Every structure is written in structure tokens, then in C-alpha cells.
Amino acid sequence: MPLRTLLLAGLLFITSGLGLALAQANPNRQDWEPLFNGKDLTGWDIKITGQPLNDNYKNTFRVENGIMRLAYDQYTSFDGKYGHLYYKKPYSHYRVRFTYRFVGQQTKGGAAWNVRNSGVMLHSQSAASLSLGQDFPVSLELQLLGGLGKGPRHTANLCTPGTEVYMDGKLNPAHCIDSDSKTYDGDQWVTAEAIVLGDSVIHHLVDGDTVLTYQRPRVSSYFISDEYDWKAAGIQNVDYWASRANKPLGEGYIALQAESHPIDFRSVEILELKGCTDPKALNYKSYYVKSDNTRCQYGRKK
């Protein structure tokens, strides 16, 4: 082979290798993705009790000045209009992080226990699958509570509409389980996070500290209790959920809850922990804990 041809071939090999290295971003760098674009509700579905899918009753969900707001200034009374805003894509293994604050006063007609009360639903059923009169989705609720100036009131708790979890190796039948977070009084911004690992373990964090951990989430045999069953919760497809009783709950949607007290979200972002685990791929990430190599992208044929 002539020297010139050999040098050219070597140069092409080096260049292609360099191109691959440049195209393959640092596999250790965490690629957080915003779920809220700071402009509008693109990518989100709305479901409010008694209203059809994506009927934004009285403009409950809105974006103002780069902040996602769950507001009630157009309501005269709450009237049981529980609402949830669902991101369009389901996830199984991920970290979701958000910054929120409670503002103002609870709207008239809201339950006393809903003062400075909201939540972020994990592993939720989809917005489209809710019955018309269903108040809450089957999900794991990372419950958000604001302080009332009357002593401790923890946030990032767990409530379990239609679900149940294990803690310390035992099934915990409680509907709501308290975290050990500190209390956040007033209208201050708080950053919370959930680390969700399918149907194995889930951690709740506040300001970077782990405040609650539970394992083996699954669908329950009732919605909240034997008395407050699927039918009482406004669910029409009772047979479907009854057939799923005690089955692991390993994936679902993320939803933000509107429960009668105004709340703002400044950011909502996700870090997927499931993806390409082939180190030869352009989109390989070292921090993935669950493989899905159907997502792998390559610069050229392997």
C-alpha cells in the first residue's frame, strides 16, 4: 500500500475515533431533563374530578412568569374539584426533583386537612385512565405539607391511594406514613426529590437529605380501606383494579396534585436511571441502574 494511502487511512481511523469520542458525551455526567419548560403546559395532561380529560376547569393549572401555578382565584368554592397534572410519559427507574412553595390561603370549601397540602404522584395511572368522578389516581403520593406555625408538620411523606408498600421487611398498612423531614413554615421555596427504582425501593429527599424510604410498592386490594373502597373513590372499572390486587407497581406517570391550597412549582426535572448500558454506544451512561439497550445509539455499525 502506498505511504500516502496508508497515512490517509490512518488519519481517517483516528478522525472517526475522535468523532466517536466527541459525540459520546461524558458517561458520568448526569443529564437532567426539564419536564416543565418554563413557558406553558406542553407535555402535560389535566384531569379534574367531574371534568373530561384536559378540561382546565377555571384555569386551575397555568404558567405565569416562568412558574407553574396551581391556583384557585377563579373559584367561588372548591366543590371537590381535585385535580392532577400528568406528565405525558411513564417512567420506571428515575430521579424526579422539583422546587415548590405553598402560597396564600386555601380556597373556600376545601377540607381542613388540605390546608397547605399537595403532592407529587409517582407510578401513577395515566390521566386518560381515570374515571370521570375519580378524585385521586392509583399511585404513590409524595405528600407535600407546609408548616402551619403550630409545631412540627413534616413534608415528603407517603400516602397510598390504591397502593401499599413494605417498610423494614413488613407490609405497612397505613394510608399515610410520616417522613422525618423538618417543618417548612410560610411561603418559602423547598426542593424535594424522589429516587424511584421500579418496584424495588423508593427514597424521598428534601434539600438533599433522605427523609423516607420504602420498598416493594404494589396495588392494594382496596383504595384506602375496606370502607373506602374502589367504588367509594369514584372508580368505575373496579374489576380491573381488583384483578391487580397485590401485584407489583413498577412504573407509571408523574402527576402534580391540586388539592384546594394554591401551590407553585418553579422547576420539575427528571434524571432517567434506565437506558443504554453498552459502553460502546454514544448514549451510554454509567449511572443507569436498569438496562434498556433498545435505546442504544451508535455512530457506525458495530
Automatic annotation (TrEMBL):
<dbReference type="Pfam" id="PF06439">
    <property type="entry name" value="3keto-disac_hyd"/>
</dbReference>
<protein>
    <submittedName>
        <fullName>DUF1080 domain-containing protein</fullName>
    </submittedName>
</protein>
<feature type="domain" description="3-keto-alpha-glucoside-1,2-lyase/3-keto-2-hydroxy-glucal hydratase">
    <location>
        <begin position="31"/>
        <end position="270"/>
    </location>
</feature>
<dbReference type="GO" id="GO:0016787">
    <property type="term" value="F:hydrolase activity"/>
</dbReference>
<keyword id="KW-0732">Signal</keyword>
<feature type="signal peptide">
    <location>
        <begin position="1"/>
        <end position="23"/>
    </location>
</feature>
<dbReference type="InterPro" id="IPR010496">
    <property type="entry name" value="AL/BT2_dom"/>
</dbReference>
